[in-house]
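can u do me a favor
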């Protein structure tokens, strides 16, 4: 079933590698024995702080640059021998409510740029990061990889378009590209600043800053939260076995409602104050219940219990933001 040899000894480019998942992936690749990891990130949300551990290896080169510019990728491929690219660059979902067109085009342009370089022989393998958001609200559950793509935001529409681009380049040109599709990730280094932050970081930040946490809508919308370490572990294992042109969900089997999630964060942070109810966000997906049958079939898939991951994550925010 092996599709590719190991990542050990490879030159690897991670787009968006100073971000949340990307930086954990960089750490994992270095720990696995990558020869060199090159990061391109425009620091739209990412931070070099996320690469502090990685820098210690002496095998990381960071470019603060924009993967939407072909020329910015061009000089990287000219100066580094890259075997594999992990495409993590994106602008957060929330940004699509502010700048819908750019949220869309970033997802598409970066991916098309990489596919063109790959088609012309600049590197061998592309691992493209999709998102569960491409499915939209469930037509059937649990959602497997054949679930229709019904994006409800321009962020997800751009991601869906990028997925189709990857699949079509595989069919047309036989490039070695595959798609991993994480569901909601949480863990250390997830951005907690500003309106682009996700629910766990923003709630932790609010509580630590003495600001009342918020719940949008009735709180019954649910998500499947996976610990970021489990995601990068799965991605590096899938690298060896996922055939070109295929995609795979990466999630847990645990649905949690936003109301329940907020309750757990408050309990964990010993916050007993009020929670402000805000109107629901237009086009919020109601439910994301994944099928993990495929990922279980492909790899040895180990998952951290949510309460353990959540506790470690909240500890990290306490250290970063300051103690209550
Ligand atoms: N976090 C999640 O819950 C989740 C869920 C499903 C899928 N994903 C996917 O995983 C990947 C990583 O997500 P993340 O949570 O780490 O997001 P993130 O925002 O933390 O990281 C994305 C990084 O891309 C950088 N970036 C944005 N535009 C860029 C550009 N034009 N050129 C170079 N860098 C650019 C940002 O600065 C950021 O560091 C994304 O493709 C995302 O769609 C994430």
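np, heres the sequence
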């Amino acid at each position: 079933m092996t599709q590719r040899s190991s990542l050990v000894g490879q030159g690897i480019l991670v787009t968006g590698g100073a971000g949340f998942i990307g930086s954990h992936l960089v750490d994992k690749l270095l720990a696995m024995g990558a020869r060199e990891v090159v990061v391109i990130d425009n620091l739209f949300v990412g931070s070099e702080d996320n690469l502090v551990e990685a820098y210690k290896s002496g095998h990381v080169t960071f470019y603060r640059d924009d993967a939407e510019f072909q020329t910015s990728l061009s000089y990287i491929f000219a100066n580094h021998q890259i075997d594999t690219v992990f495409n993590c660059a994106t602008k957060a979902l929330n940004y699509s409510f502010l700048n819908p067109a750019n949220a869309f085009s970033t997802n598409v342009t970066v991916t098309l740029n990489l596919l063109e370089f790959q088609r012309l022989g600049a590197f061998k393998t592309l691992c493209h990061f999709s998102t569960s958001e491409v499915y939209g609200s469930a037509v059937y559950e649990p959602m497997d990889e054949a679930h229709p793509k019904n994006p409800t935001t321009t962020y997800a529409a751009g991601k869906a378009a990028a997925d189709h681009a990857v699949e079509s380049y595989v069919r047309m040109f036989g490039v070695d590209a595959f798609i991993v599709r994480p569901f909601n990730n949480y863990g250390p280094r997830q951005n907690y600043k500003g309106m682009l932050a996700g629910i766990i970081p923003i709630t932790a930040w609010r509580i630590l800053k003495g600001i009342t946490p918020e719940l949008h809508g009735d709180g019954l919308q649910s998500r499947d939260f996976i610990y970021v370490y489990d995601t990068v572990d799965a991605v590096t294992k899938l690298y060896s076995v996922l055939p070109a042109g295929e995609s795979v969900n990466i999630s847990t089997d645990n649905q949690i409602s936003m109301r329940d999630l907020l309750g757990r964060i408050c309990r964990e942070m010993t916050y007993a104050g009020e929670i402000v109810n805000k109107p629901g966000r237009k086009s919020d997906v109601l439910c994301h219940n994944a099928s993990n049958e495929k990922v279980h079939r492909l790899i040895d898939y180990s998952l951290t219990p949510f309460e353990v991951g959540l506790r470690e994550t909240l500890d990290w925010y306490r250290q970063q933001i300051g103690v209550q």
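The longest strand covers residues 176-182. hope that helps!!
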